[in-house]
Amino acid sequence: MTENKMVKLIIDGKNVEVPEGTSIMHAAEVIGIKVPRLCYHPYLSIEGACRVCIVEVKGARNFIASCATPVAEGMEVTTTSPSIRQARRDIVELILDNHPKDCQTCDRDGNCELQRLAYAMGVRNRYFEGERKNYEKDLSSPAVIRDPNKCILCQRCVRVCEEVQGVTALCQAHRGFNTVVMPAFDLPFSESVCVTCGQCINVCPTAAFLEKESTKKVWDAISNPEVTVIAQFAPSVRAAVGEGFGLEPGHNMEGQTVTALRRLGVDIVFDTQFGADLTIMEEANEFVKRFTQGGKLPMLTSCSAAWMKYIEQFYPELLDNLSTCKSPMGMVSALTKTFYAKKKNLDPKKIFNLAVMCCTAKKFEAARPEMADENGKAYTDAVVTTREFVWMVKSQGIDFVNLEKSDFDPVLGFSTGAGAIFGATGGVMEAALRTAYEIITNETLVDIDFVPVRGMKGIKEAEIDINGTKVKVAVAHGLGNARILMDQAKNGTSPYHFIEVMGCPGGCIGGGGQPYAGTDVIPLDQEMLKARAKALYDIDHGKVLRKSHENPYIQRLYKEFLGEPLSEVSHHLLHTHYKQRFPKGI
Amino acid sequence: MTDFKLTPELENYIDECKQKEEYKSYLIAVLHKIQEVFGYLPQSMMEEVAERLEIPTSKIYGVATFYHMFKLKPEGKHAINICLGTACYVKGAQQVLNAFETALKIKLGETTEDGLFTLKSTRCLGTCGLAPVVMIGEKVYSNVTPDDVAVIISSYKNR
């Protein structure tokens, strides 16, 4: 590849010079022309499926897709003319004519790329009435539902699932008019390798993928006076929820979220970050034990729900490397129905645990038998995504952005900075190292910012000197990146002692349940993810206590209830084991 | 579901493919061989190929459903080939096909639940003078009308 070779061409009468291999679409952006587009996504391979980005190239027989065509020396390109505009409008209209006309009742109303595009292209009438596809919705998964009728076959979901996540649960089956995006063998989603991460929802331009809604049982619980509704919300929710109300990414809306939950009728609001601190207590001690006394290494983190399903299917041979800790959500839910219920004299059967999560996979996790009490009843009664929470708030006419801030309820509502950064890739590792260092050395860690594990690089590594021993750690986000580290671990060539894996790009902040990207932001956008991550690191920085083991409520919890980390009570309530799951991932 | 096993020949063939540099590009060839042996592509065999060639099952399913030559269900005991060539079509083959679809409660290309019949279309059989023509096994039915369909089907029911 001669990367530096430049190519000169003319776009709309202007001279442009770009490196060889640049697409016409990107060359046009250099001079400020954003060719309309639909299936194109900058982090995914080029599909050329929608044909919306067509341009005219002098000498070419037809209009050509600008995303899929590289520039050539002397090329003369026209990006807009009456006939191109007409053709683009026809293309979008043809897509629309095999699409339901139910915008007003659709989950993506106001947030749909197809809707936006149709308006922008000037589609004001629908002239082509033709045959319509008609498929059953796939509601089998507890987390992600699939509605092929809304699908416009842009293949973004197929690409993100394969290229970013390495899961490849989806394919384009059949051909022509009968093409449908579906799991292998047209099996229900619940029987496929889908890890329920929800990235297909994030990148879908329409509503062909959505989370399975859980709000009804939340409304029911809230309106039942006999039930105590205890809510918790994930670190990443506070960093992104503002976007659902029109704010720029990166606002910390923690206090407003607490107030909004109370206004919705929730009785007690706890913080998943408390669970994060507790996870660190258990996980750091587990790591120290394995590291100093000999145990399965590299130890792998276990808080990301999509990652759990992934390892069960794709790397069952590494399940012993997994930390046995439940997720922060799982820990908080288990404690509210045991420790807290006892403390406050509440009947655990009349507690309804609501978790507001940035995640679709948490819906799957909550329903797992591994996360249930001894009678098989789930500790977490409902998981709603950030998006579902946003509409619940809107439906009550709550002016979220202008709400006064309030504090969490005591006991399980206090967290350190270490708990906050859980939501960003590298955060769990950083939080664990802050605590593990002090356990091993018995010294105070002064420089507590582990910068090498921060940021949006796919795989990050660091080496920490603890008492003269080098501890090698790695962090992966997005399951495609995890695969690289897992292959090493499987082959016995992993140089690491401790690996953090987050299922979603960016970590939980990029979760499949987060608000849809705004009008001018593309899904998965790195800047958006960085802004959300910054909100969490700012919370951490603003706190006096930034190490999980310094959390006074955590200390009290151990004194009053758990005993010590990895105790029998801890093992009973806060730890679990995972088993191989089929179908096997490839 | 019936339990299928790769024959030693198929195993050898897949192993051979696996030695090649771009072994994943042998997928279609492997699927052809499997169909030769089993008459169609059983799901368990596609899963087996997925594991051996390290290709996700969804990708294999995408390929298998894209190409018309691959069959995902076993063919019925009797394949009913209805000629839809020009002459037969002009003489009413479409109505004959409709009658078969209604009588067997399946669409073109499908197989009846009892596994007896598969409904297929064919192009000119070279006997246009007998149009419309239907061929079942080696037997050719000529001048078929929708009214004949029930009789034809029932003659195969007890075979």
Structure, explained:
The complex is a heterodimer of chains A (586) and B (159). The model of chain A has no long low-confidence stretch (mean pLDDT 96). In chain A, strands 2-1-5-3-4 form a five-stranded mixed β-sheet, with helices on both faces. In chain A, strands 11-10-13-14 form a four-stranded parallel β-sheet, with helices on both faces. Helix content of chain A is 34%, strand content 14%. Chain A has 586 residues and is α/β, with parallel strands linked by helices. In chain A, strand 7 and strand 8 form a beta hairpin. In chain A, helix 9 (272-293) packs across helix 11 (328-343). Chain B is of the alpha+beta class and 159 residues long. Chain B has two domains: 8-66; 78-157, Glutaredoxin, CATH 3.40.30.10. Chain B is built from seven helices and four strands, in the order ααααβααβββα. A four-stranded mixed β-sheet of chain B has the order 2-1-3-4, with helices on one face. In chain B, a hairpin with a 2-residue loop joins strand 3 (134-136) and strand 4 (139-141). In chain B, helix 2 (27-38) packs antiparallel against helix 3. Chain B is elongated, with a radius of gyration of 19 Å. The interface between A and B is medium-sized, with 19 and 16 residues.
Which consecutive residue ranges of chain B, at least 5 long each, have pLDDT under 50? none
Largest sheet of chain B: 4 strands, mixed
Under CATH, the topology of the largest domain in chain B can be stated as: Glutaredoxin
Tally of structural domains of chain A:
3
Tell me how many strands of chain A there are: 17
Task: Supply Rg of chain B.
Answer: 19 Å
Could you give the order of the helices and strands of chain B?
A: HHHHEHHEEEH
Stated plainly, the CATH topology of the largest domain in chain A is called Fe-only Hydrogenase (Larger Subunit), Chain L, domain 3
The CATH architecture designation of the largest domain in chain A is 3-Layer(aba) Sandwich
Shape of chain B: elongated
Q: Strand sequence of the main sheet of chain B, in spatial order? A: 2-1-3-4
Spatial shape of chain A = globular
**The CATH homologous superfamily of the largest domain in chain B:** Glutaredoxin
Strand-pairing-aware structural class of chain A: alpha/beta
